[in-house]
């Protein structure tokens, strides 16, 4: 498993060092270096160079592992653990082997389990080797550096991250080797760091050995005072030597890599921690990718303030990429909005949803394009048809750049390039300046596509060393070799007919097997008639097999020529692949443009079919939504079942920030900053709350929104506190989780934030809970003045609207029937005075006797309730929202005797 701390020793002094020491070969013992066989000495030396990785060492047709690695691999992959002779004095040591053709499958399984793997392959033909076959580590695979198609999810990035810290500042770099994205940032708040790591969900995180605190901070199950919440359950980290993370070394590496004199152009010259993280990450890639080039684009520096901040709780509560209950894609916002048709578009949409924008012009540019695509259904559909024909350019370019692409990958690239001009012409024909600006077919790619098509056959095989890759007419030598081989092949093909005639044996056959190659087969009964020049090679029950000198001569020539052809074809292919590799940056730029078109077409498609509107965005703090709907619940319910509801928050007429919706009259009074939302259980409070959050988020992504009309300001953050669960991993109780989250909101919300609170204070005694809920609502409304919706079953909170001007009461209505209630799901002004919790209990199947008793108890509680009176006695005077003086603190409320008769 990655994560064991050790620096890589220098390889140069290994033999001497090892000669003097014993070699620790497993958890169970150690051996003397000199006692090992030469192959084992080599194995151990390589293993010492890769102490973190499981070493797979090629021996014949197998990749073998020894010592502790063998025990680990046998356990993890359920392989047979056997043993191998490691030298006379040592005897047999543990061995587990993987057949070479199944390497990918087993590597996938190991990487998914979080292991790093070093692959030590034979780098010379064993038949030509003098002594020990030459072997080298050709690849180190780790969860964050895999490129193989089968190990990656098409719809999400596979990030490798690196984190450094200095005092309370931190630097974070991340890269996706398969797509070439490479970003870095630095900031101060540790909470922000954990949130950013949560957003990225890296497959692997690099941490310098001198900063193990980072692991404590980021790993789940290790409570930290900075951590409001748990991090990914499978946090996979790798400790790395410190040197590459030092400022000077990291900076130098970045300058060299991007051939620069200063990092100014990359935007990180003055961000030392961002530079250190990025340099350390780059060094790791260079170290693990060995001979392969590290296929990264240029480094982009970003600041967290460019994006709407959505913390982990909010991402979970709003179910942006997966549901909160069972972490599935189905039922998430991404599920509801993803109508992309390419893997690039699908990944881009996920990124857009996790990083909504703050810049109103950028939002409006996306909106303008969407509007065009919404209005021009024809264009949208043709664009989507064309997009479907384009392969995953980002990852194909990545594989070409790293030298792992096969011929089918290059043909897929060529096919995609061929389709780009048509897509580009469509994009250019669109009204939108945003689309027009997308550079989709640089001339160099057109030429590259032509080269690939003219060199590669239409449907090449998967493997590169079996020929049939390169077209005729590409290379004179190849053509001549093919002609020569064709002559001999034809001679062999004709041989059966020729020999039948010569021998007079009508049943004579020409066959082929791996042991002898070509042979002539005659039944035993006719063996007497075999011509004199036949040389008997094998006798079977019913047949005799022969060869002739000429057959063997021709056969040998065919084999040799074919080997020459395969090797020449491979060389030509590698040159083509290198040529493509030189264009990876350009291909990726195109891929990003294609992805953007795909995302926008998809969003336009949803907007049309779900009846979304273009929200009016402004630099104010108003949230005005007419007939808004929850984008996901609406799609999960049968058509027409979802009840739309309006929202009006934060418009301040005195400052003129309120923006009336088209077709509506300006409001006579300003909208509240805080809404107390009450209503029966299961009436739709949480749904309404989330709907407002999702509409705001979608609007800042640039999407249209599920509403009849909307006018929205730009929010700096969206906070949510919805429900609560015990967080056993960090040892926090339900109530403590709730309080931590609430504290986070109160400490960070501003008047430009949207705060959505569902049920604060439920996890403790009623009066403690109510008091906290009251004080939190009061603080949000009068001190912070953030746009807030506060859903609660504490009906006493409705009193606040009589005290603070910027608080209003809304309720989700129900219709009371004699024996049941009907949920109308309509949000209307006014506070509910009942929760109908007992009715919900009845619907859930509580026994009738319990329901009857509950009704009696409730009646008694209602008789005795003085909570509201108590709060009113100690509450703030109704005026403009402001802090009360200390002498207006609420008096203690009388305790209820609920079992009093
Ligand atoms: N506007 C709506 N139109 C149609 N159905 C709705 C609407 N809002 C909510 N629902 C349905 O009602 C169910 C309950 O909604 P929700 O969980 O929001 O209730 P709640 O008031 O928060 O309940 P509780 O107070 O018990 O937590 C939802 O699962 C959804 O199917």
From TrEMBL:
**Which one GO biological process term can you cite for this protein?**
mismatch repair
All residue ranges annotated as the DNA mismatch repair proteins mutS family domain in the record:
753-769
| Annotated spans, Disordered | 869-893
User: What PROSITE patterns would the database entry show?
Assistant: DNA_MISMATCH_REPAIR_2
Q: Which CDD domains match?
A: ABC_MutS1
Which residues are ATP-binding? 679-686
Gene3D superfamilies xrefs: 1.10.1420.10, DNA repair protein MutS, domain I, MutS, connector domain, P-loop containing nucleotide triphosphate hydrolases
Q: Which residues form a coiled coil?
A: none
Query: Which InterPro entries would you find in this protein's record?
Result: DNA_mismatch_repair_MutS, DNA_mismatch_repair_MutS-lik_N, DNA_mismatch_repair_MutS/MSH, DNA_mismatch_repair_MutS_C, DNA_mismatch_repair_MutS_clamp, DNA_mismatch_repair_MutS_core, DNA_mismatch_repair_MutS_N, DNA_mismatch_repair_MutS_sf
Query: What keywords would UniProt list here?
Result: ATP-binding, DNA damage, DNA repair, DNA-binding, Nucleotide-binding
Q: Can you provide one Gene Ontology molecular function annotated for this UniProt record?
A: ATP binding
Q: Which Pfam families match?
A: MutS_I, MutS_II, MutS_III, MutS_IV, MutS_V
GO cellular component terms listed in the entry, alphabetical order? cytosol
Checking PANTHER family in the record gives:
DNA MISMATCH REPAIR PROTEIN MSH1, MITOCHONDRIAL, DNA MISMATCH REPAIR PROTEIN MUTS FAMILY MEMBER
User: Which family does the similarity line name?
Assistant: Belongs to the DNA mismatch repair MutS family.
Q: Which HAMAP family match?
A: MutS (MF_00096)
Instruction: Please give the function described in this protein's UniProt entry.
Output: This protein is involved in the repair of mismatches in DNA. It is possible that it carries out the mismatch recognition step. This protein has a weak ATPase activity.
Q: What is this protein called?
A: DNA mismatch repair protein MutS
């Amino acid at each position: 498993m990655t994560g064991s701390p050790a620096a890589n020793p220098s390889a140069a002094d290994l033999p001497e060092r090892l000669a003097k020491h014993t070699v620790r070969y497993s958890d169970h013992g150690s051996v003397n270096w000199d006692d090992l066989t030469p192959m084992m000495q080599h194995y151990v030396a390589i293993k010492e160079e890769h102490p973190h990785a499981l070493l797979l060492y090629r021996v014949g047709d197998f990749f073998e592992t020894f010592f502790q690695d063998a025990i680990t691999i046998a356990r993890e992959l359920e392989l047979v653990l056997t043993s191998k002779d490691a030298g006379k004095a040592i005897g047999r040591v543990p061995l587990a082997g993987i057949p070479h053709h199944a390497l990918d499958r087993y590597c996938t399984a190991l990487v998914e389990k979080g292991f790093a793997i070093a692959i030590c392959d034979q780098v010379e033909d064993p038949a030509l080797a003098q002594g020990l076959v030459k072997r080298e580590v050709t690849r180190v695979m780790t969860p964050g550096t895999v490129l193989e198609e089968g190990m990656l999810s098409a719809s999400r990035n596979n990030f490798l991250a690196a984190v450094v810290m200095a005092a309370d500042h931190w630097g974070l770099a991340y890269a996706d080797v398969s797509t070439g994205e490479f970003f870095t940032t630095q900031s101060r708040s540790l909470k922000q760091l954990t949130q950013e790591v949560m957003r990225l969900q890296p497959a692997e995180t690099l941490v310098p050995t001198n900063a193990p605190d980072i692991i404590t901070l980021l790993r789940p199950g290790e409570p930290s005072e900075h951590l409001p919440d748990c991090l990914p359950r499978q946090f996979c980290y790798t400790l790395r030597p410190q040197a590459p993370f030092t400022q000077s070394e990291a900076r130098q590496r970045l300058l060299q890599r991007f051939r620069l004199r200063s990092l100014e152009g990359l935007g990180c010259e003055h961000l030392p921690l961002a530079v250190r993280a990025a340099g350390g990450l780059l060094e790791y890639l260079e170290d693990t990718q060995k001979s392969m080039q590290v296929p990264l684009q240029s480094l982009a520096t970003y600041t967290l303030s460019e994006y709407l901040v959505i913390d982990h709780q909010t991402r979970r509560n709003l179910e942006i990429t997966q549901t909160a209950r069972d972490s599935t894609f189905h039922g998430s916002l991404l599920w509801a909005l993803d109508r992309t048709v390419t893997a690039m578009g699908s990944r881009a949409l996920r990124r857009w949803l996790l990083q909504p924008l703050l810049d109103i012009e950028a939002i409006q540019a996306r909106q303008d394009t969407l509007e065009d695509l919404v209005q021009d259904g024809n264009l949208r559909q043709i664009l989507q048809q064309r997009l479907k024909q384009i392969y995953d350019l980002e990852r194909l370019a990545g594989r070409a750049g790293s030298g792992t692409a096969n011929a089918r990958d290059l043909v897929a690239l060529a096919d995609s390039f061929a389709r780009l001009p048509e897509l580009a012409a469509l994009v250019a024909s669109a009204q939108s300046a945003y689309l027009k600006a997308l550079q989709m077919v640089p001339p160099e790619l057109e030429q590259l596509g032509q080269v690939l098509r003219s060199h590669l056959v239409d449907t090449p095989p998967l493997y590169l060393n079996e020929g049939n890759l390169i077209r005729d007419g590409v290379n004179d030598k190849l053509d001549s070799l093919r002609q020569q081989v064709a002559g001999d092949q034809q001679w062999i093909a004709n041989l059966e007919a020729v020999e039948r005639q010569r021998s007079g044996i009508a049943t004579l056959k020409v066959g082929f097997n791996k042991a002898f190659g070509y042979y002539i087969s005659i039944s035993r009964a006719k063996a007497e008639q075999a011509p004199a020049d036949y040389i008997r090679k094998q006798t079977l029950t019913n047949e005799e097999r022969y060869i002739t000198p000429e057959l063997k001569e021709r056969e040998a020539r065919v084999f040799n020529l074919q080997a020459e052809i395969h090797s020449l074809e491979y060389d030509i292919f590698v040159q083509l692949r290198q040529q493509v590799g030189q264009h990876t940056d350009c291909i990726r730029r195109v891929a990003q443009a294609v992805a953007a078109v795909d995302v926008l077409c998809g969003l336009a498609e949803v907007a049309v079919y779900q009846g979304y509107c273009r929200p009016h965005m402004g630099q104010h703090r108003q949230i005005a939504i007419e007939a808004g709907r929850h984008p996901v619940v609406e799609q999960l319910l049968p058509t027409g079942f979802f009840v739309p509801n309006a929202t009006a928050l934060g418009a301040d007429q005195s400052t003129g920030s309120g923006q009336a919706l088209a077709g509506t009259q300006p409001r006579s009074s300003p909208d509240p900053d805080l809404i107390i939302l009450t209503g029966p259980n299961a009436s739709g409070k949480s749904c309404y709350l989330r709907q407002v959050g999702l509409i705001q988020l979608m609007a800042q992504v640039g999407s249209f929104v599920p509403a009849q009309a909307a006018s929205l300001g730009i929010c700096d953050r969206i906070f949510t506190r919805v429900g609560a669960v015990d967080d056993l991993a960090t040892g926090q109780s339900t109530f403590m989780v709730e309080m931590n989250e609430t504290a986070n909101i109160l400490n960070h919300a501003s008047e430009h934030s949207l705060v959505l609170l569902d049920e604060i204070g439920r996890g403790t005694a009623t009066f403690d809970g109510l008091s906290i809920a009251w004080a939190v609502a009061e603080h949000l409304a009068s001190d912070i003045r953030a746009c807030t919706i506060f859903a609660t079953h504490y009906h006493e909170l409705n009193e606040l609207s009589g005290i603070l001007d910027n608080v209003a009461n809304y309720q989700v209505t129900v219709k009371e029937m004699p024996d049941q209630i009907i949920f109308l799901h309509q949000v209307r002004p006014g506070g509910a005075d009942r929760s109908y919790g007992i009715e919900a209990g009845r619907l859930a199947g509580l026994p009738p006797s319990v329901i009857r008793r509950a009704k009696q108890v409730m009646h008694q509680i209602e008789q005795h309730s003085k909570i509201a009176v108590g709060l009113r006695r100690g509450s703030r005077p109704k005026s403009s929202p402001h802090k009360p003086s200390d002498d207006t603190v609420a008096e203690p409320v009388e305790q209820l005797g609920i079992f009093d008769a």
